[in-house]
Amino acid sequence: MQAPTPAVKPYPIQVHAQQDDPLSRWLWLVKWLLIVPHVLILIPLWIAFCVLSLVALAAIVITGRYPRPLFDFNVGVMRWNWRVGYYAYNALGTDRYPPFALREIPGYPAGLNVAYPTRLHRGLVLVKWLLAVPHLLIVGILFSGSAWIGWQAGGDAWDWGGGGLVALLVLIAGIALTVTGRYPRPLFDLILGLNRWGLRVAGYAALMTDRYPPFRLDLGGDEPGGAAVSSRQPCACRQFHPCRSSGM
Predict the structure, then answer these.
(1) How far apart are the first and last CA of the chain?
(2) Quick one: pLDDT at residue 7?
(3) Which of 52, 54, 87, 100 has the fewest CB atoms within 10 Å distance of its CB?
(4) What's the mean per-residue pLDDT of the chain?
(5) Beta carbons of 75 and 208 less than 8 angstroms apart
(6) C-beta separation of 100 from 109 below 8 A
(7) Is the pLDDT of residue 148 over 50?
(8) Total domain count for the chain?
(9) Is the pTM of this model over 0.90?
């Protein structure tokens, strides 16, 4: 009798995506232009992300807690960036234009959530950058060093030209779309797994969890373990701009 396969414990950083079908054969060629408005907003948002991460570091060292408003805002920036990347040259997974929002958008085919940590190790936050080096070396190969840094700074329009395995695979997907009108499912699953790895490392390096990212390629749009982190988090943008009235 075969022993049951042990369940995979969900990682606190959850990345979800659903492949749209059909996709335009030609739209991917001009998405670099269509996402320029997002890039112009994401650049200052990522600057704020970096500043607030330093503030959060100090707070964690003193109190052992990541201030919730700062946490929600920073997760919102990562979430927004992931939607833009999924639409554009980190995946080409949808032709639905990404919303201008920090909060989770129900029904949009790409989502990211991070479980809020009630406590964080005070000393560990000072060395996470060092502990993450093995992962950063891998991520540098996946996205190329300059491309991944540009992506994390909101530069989705230009990081495709920086090289890396993900860029090559997305280019192949775009060519397949043009020729056949279809996005090969195995290729989609691999690209999503690589993006998930990068986002887990980004969240860990940004002090959002003490759980070390696994050296594991989880393919496809669904997270392993079945359970997804709840998206019912306070809208971080309420702390920074009037999203209630603008829909952001």
Answers:
(1) 54
(2) 62
(3) 54
(4) 84
(5) yes
(6) no
(7) no
(8) 1
(9) no
Domain holding 172, by residue range, is: 13-246
Is there a domain that residue 155 lies in?
A: yes
Is pLDDT at 154 greater than 80 in this prediction?
Answer: no
The larger pLDDT score, comparing residue 20 to residue 248, is at 20
- Residue 207: both structure tokens together: 């002090």
Q: Over 60: is that where the pLDDT of 237 sits?
A: no
Pairwise pLDDT comparison (236 vs 186), residue with the higher score: 186
Structural domain contains residue 8: no
For 175, other C-beta atoms within 10 Å of its C-beta total: 11
Confirm whether 5 is domain-assigned: no
Alpha carbon of 125 to those of 51, 52, 89, 235: distances in Å? 15, 14, 31, 25
**67 inside domain:** yes
Please tell me the distance from the alpha carbon of residue 194 to that of residue 188, in angstroms, as a whole number: 10
- What number is the average pLDDT over the span 124-152? 76
With 70 as the cut, is the pLDDT of residue 151 above it? no
Residues 6+ apart with CB under 8 A from 123: 61
Name which residue leads in pLDDT, 158 or 185: 185
